[in-house]
Write a structure and sequence with these properties.
This protein is 78% helix and 0% strand. The protein is mainly α and 407 residues long. The chain has a single domain, classed as Amino acid/polyamine transporter I, CATH 1.20.1740.10.
Length: 407
């Protein structure tokens, strides 16, 4: 039997790059800082119940040669239209949010200027150039180095924190009861490891990978690639929770309420606690975490919108990838320039849409992978089917819980 080579890795690492962002750097670290190891159960539960729905994206693509968006259209054009509407509402806000946090970290790490809008423009222009010159092939290669750098720097940071730690911690699990605690738990569960619509991006990257390699992307190879990326996000989520626990738990630190403020505060606290030499390591870990997300979101949203608009409107060459990527960059700049003070409200709107549509996309992915459109031999076994239904139930309960906190 032919061995799976590391050349097949790509879409799974892009998935990891997109997923390992604010959810890990901010949410997982805050979870450790405020509750110690008490929310490990939530981290594991989120990864368990979302696993099938993320997996169905690359699996369907490898099995059929089509993206999930093609599949949604086969199930009903209304489902594809729903995705189009949700994505066009959320993509500008998400891109702006991840870009400004990355810009904040770049300012801390490299200095040069404290103007975050200028740093955002530098980052977006650089990424745009990478995508323009190298297209998917360069993105695929670049992400391997970014994820490797992120993993190594994070593990080094955790190792130093463990070595310098003299406190004993317990692993008693914490179940929130107060309103603020419940609110944090909901956000933590919702964004860990990522919103479910990233499964669409993963299916598109799988198709693109198959076009750019001589090696056939089989279902087995795509599952191997996915598992590397997915379990990598789990391990790094645990790493950031450990960092939060060892350095920040029970310190009485008042945390910034925004992702930008917290990311900046994080580097300063680690530096004060563990020493000036630690600043570069945690800075690289934090910056590469957010850079990977900024790059992948800038590629994935336009890629998804190009495919969706083609399937919906049959346009040829008009609403293409470069139209959408420039549209996204311009929209991001406008939000940065004129609506930065309202980012909290904009992010909340995007969050609500992501939360409420998660059960819908979970159901669509499950229905598609078990439908006549997927070859029988690639449909999930009984265990994955049961886990899928439990996952849909989990997401429904979670969504109703989220709505109840809003009102």
């Amino acid at each position: 039997m032919k061995k799976i080579t590391f050349s097949v890795l790509g879409p799974g690492l892009l998935f990891a790059g997109a997923a390992i962002g604010v959810s890990h750097l901010v949410q997982a670290t805050k979870a450790g800082a405020e509750y110690g190891f008490g929310l490990i159960w939530a981290l594991l539960l989120a990864h368990l119940f979302k696993y099938p729905f993320f997996k169905f994206g690359p699996k369907y693509a490898a099995a059929t040669g089509e993206s999930l968006l093609d599949g949604y259209k086969k199930l009903g054009k209304g489902y594809l239209l729903l995705y189009f509407i949700v994505n066009i509402i959320t993509m500008f806000v998400i891109q702006t949010a991840v870009t400004i946090v990355t810009a904040s970290l770049a300012s801390q790490l490299f200095g040069i200027t404290n103007n975050l809008v200028l740093w955002s423009v530098i980052l977006l222009t650089t990424i745009l150039s990478i995508l323009w010159i190298g297209k998917y092939q360069l993105l695929d290669k670049l992400m391997k180095y970014i994820i490797l750098s992120l993993t190594i720097s994070t593990i080094i940071a955790v190792s130093i924190a463990i070595f310098k730690n003299e406190t004993t911690y317990n692993f008693i699990q914490f179940f929130p009861k107060e309103a603020l605690e419940i609110s944090f738990l909901i956000a933590f569960l919702g964004w860990m490891p990522a919103p479910l619509d990233i499964s669409v991006w993963h299916s598109l990257w799988t198709i693109e990978k198959s076009k750019n390699t001589a090696e056939k992307i089989t279902v087995k190879k795509s599952e191997f690639d996915f598992n590397i990326g997915y379990f990598g996000t789990l391990i790094l989520g645990i790493c950031f929770m450990i960092l939060g626990t060892l350095v920040l738990y029970k310190t009485g630190t008042k945390f910034a309420t925004t992702g930008i403020g917290f990311a900046t505060q994080l580097i300063n606290i680690y530096t004060q606690t563990l020493g000036e030499s630690f600043k570069l390591i945690i800075g690289i870990a934090a910056f590469t975490t957010m850079l990977s997300t900024t790059i992948t979101t800038l590629d994935a949203s336009p890629r998804a919108m190009e495919k969706a608009s083609f399937l919906l409107f049959k346009n040829k060459g008009k609403l293409n990838y470069w139209f959408w990527i420039l549209f996204l960059v311009i929209g991001t700049y406008i939000i940065l320039q004129f609506f930065l003070n309202n980012m909290a409200t904009l992010v909340k709107i995007a969050t609500i849409f992501s939360f409420l549509t998660a059960p819908i996309f979970a159901f669509l992915n499950y229905r598609l992978i078990t439908s006549k459109f997927t070859p029988k031999e690639f449909q999930p076994n009984l265990f994955i089917k049961v886990l899928s239904w439990l996952g849909i139930l989990f997401l429904l309960i979670f969504s109703f819980w989220f709505i109840s906190t809003l009102f």
